[in-house]
Amino acid sequence: MTTSTSSSASHRSDVCIVGNGAIAKTAALGFAQAGHSVTLLVPATQAESPVAVTGGERQWDVRVYALNHTARNLLASLKVWDALDAERVAPVDAMAVNGDGKNGGSLGFDAFGAHTGTLAWIVEDSNLNGALDAALKFAHKVEIVKGCGARLTCGLAGAAVELEDGRRIDARLVLGADGRDSWVRGQCDIGIDYRSYHQRAIVTNFSCEKPHHGVAHQWFTCSDGIIALLPLPGNRVSLVWSAPETLAATLMEESMGELAVRLCEYADEPLGTLRPLQPEAVKAVPLALVRPHALTAPHVALIGDAAHSVHPLAGHGMNLGFGDIQDLLRVVAEREEHRAIGDERVLARYARARKEDVLLMQLATDGLERLFGANLEPLRVARNLGLNLLDKLPFIKRRLMAHAIGQ
C-alpha cells in the first residue's frame, strides 16, 4: 500500500473507490486480492476516533455492527476476520422480539432452529476498521490518495475523478462507497427516493446485572420507537434505540443513568439492572430510507449506504454493503474476456444481482417501521397476534432467518 498527498500527481488504476468506511476498505482489499490495481480516495482530513483507556481497558465503541454470515465469509476470504480482536467480538446465539403493550406478542429465533452455529456477530466499528487498516498496509495493489473530489467525468474507456487540488484519478471503474449523502451518486445525477423516519438512533453501552447468554433483545414500543439491546462480550450490552425526534432530544439531554432507568421497564426482567459503561458516551444518528433510482452509471457502481440506506431495526445495513461487494466481485470475475471491468453489461449484472436482496430488506424494514409505528388499537392487536402466530411456524421462521443471516 502507498499513500499520496502530492498536489501534482496523477493516478491511474483499474478501480477507484471513493470512501473511507469499512465498506470502501473491504472493496479495496477484495479487488486488490483479485488482481486489480486500486486507488482508494479518502478525505484529506480524517477525524481520529479517540481511544480512551479506563482501568486498563479500551473504551467500548458506541457504534457496533451485527455482521451476518455473508459478511463473515467475505471478511474471512480476505484474511480480515481472523485479524479482529476476538475478545471484543460477541456471538448472537438467539433473538427475542417483543411486541408493544403489556400483553404484546413475542417471537424468538435461535441458532439451533436456524440450523447454524451462530446467528450473527457483534463487532465494534474500531475493531473492524482496525483490522481492515492493518490488511491494507500489506495490500501491494492499493494506493491511498488523500483529497476531495471536485468532478467526476466518464468517457468511452473509463471514468476520471478530478480533485480540488488539480490531481486526477483515471480508472476503468469508479465505486461510490461514500455513504448516504454520496458525492459519487450526485456527480452521476442519480436521483433518490427519500423518506425521513423522524427518528434518531440513540446508541450507547451498558453493563447488565444478569448474563445475556448471547441473546439480542428487541422491543417494538409504538409510541417510544424501537429498542434493541445487543450482546457485547462479558456482561455488557449495546443499545440501539430508534426514538422519535422529540423523545430522542429528551434522551440526549438526560444522563446515561436516567436513560438506564427508562430502559428498566423493558430490560429488567431479562438483563437486570443496567449501568452505564465508563467513560460515558452516547450518540444520536438521524434515520431515513434512501432508495437511489439506479445502482450504476457508465463506469460507476454504488455500494454500501450510497446504494441503499435502510432502517436499523433489522441491523442489516452493513450486511447489505458486504453483499454488494460479494456480488460485484463475482460478476467482475465471471465477465467475458473481452469485457472491461467497468463494462455496461457487467455493471448491469451487478444491479440485477443486488435487486432482490436490497428490495426485500427495504420493504421488510420500512414495512415493519410503519406497522409498529401506527398507534391504532386494531393494528396493535393484529401485529401482536401476528408475532405470536409466526413464532409457531418453524418452517417460515427458518426461511426468514436463512435470508437474514446470509445463508
Summed up:
Helix content is 34%, strand content 31%.
Task: For the structure shown, list the relevant keywords.
FAD/NAD(P)-binding domain; globular; D-Amino Acid Oxidase, Chain A, domain 2; 10 helices; alpha/beta; eight-stranded mixed sheet; 407 residues; nine-stranded mixed sheet; 2 domains; 34% helix
State the low-pLDDT regions, or none: 47-55
Strand content: 25-35%
The CATH class of the largest domain? Alpha Beta
CATH 4th-level superfamily of the largest domain: FAD/NAD(P)-binding domain
Q: How many strand elements?
A: 22
CATH architecture term of the largest domain: 3-Layer(bba) Sandwich
Q: What form results from the Cα inertia axes?
A: globular
Secondary-structure-derived class: alpha/beta
Can you give a write-up of this model?
Helix content is 34%, strand content 31%. By secondary structure, the protein is an alpha/beta fold. The protein folds into two domains: 2-49 and 128-193 and 289-366, FAD/NAD(P)-binding domain (3-Layer(bba) Sandwich); 68-124 and 197-287 and 374-405, D-Amino Acid Oxidase, subunit A, domain 2 (D-Amino Acid Oxidase, Chain A, domain 2), CATH 3.30.9.10. Strands 1, 2, 3, 11, 12, 13, 14, 21 and 22 form a nine-stranded mixed beta sheet that branches. Strands 8, 9, 15, 16, 17, 18, 19 and 20 form an eight-stranded mixed beta sheet that branches. A three-stranded antiparallel beta sheet has the order 6-10-7. The protein starts with a strand and ends with a helix. The model is unreliable at 47-55 (pLDDT under 50).
